[in-house]
């Protein structure tokens, strides 16, 4: 059962890597990178379930949250060109 699930995830990983390499736009490449992170999260969860180690599920959830935050940060960088623009309050006090 693990071998079939791992094989399916590895095929999906190969397809995502092809999209990351051949993606015509930056956003296609970013989506492929997000997919790779999601597949890694699924592999961790599956490994934790099959080995009976529930802490792997916690690691998978944390990895999924980091994947989401990283994607949002990269999208903000491509849209605004900066990750840390000061707010209006910071500009008034300087």
How many angstroms separate the termini?
61 Å
The global form is: flat
Ranges where pLDDT stays below 50 over 5 or more residues in a row are none
Mean pLDDT figure: 85
Strand residue percentage:
under 5%
Number of strands: 0
Helix content range of the residues, please?
over 70%
Largest sheet: none
Number of helices: 4
- Round the Cα radius of gyration to an integer and report it: 18 Å
Output the helix-strand order.
Answer: HHHH
Describe the structure.
By secondary structure, the chain is mainly alpha-helical. The protein has a domain at 33-82. It is built from 4 helices and no strands. The protein has helices spanning 2-22, 26-51, 55-80, 88-92. It is flat. The protein starts with a helix and ends with a helix. The mean pLDDT is 85.
Topology:
Layout: H1 2-22, H2 26-51, H3 55-80, H4 88-92
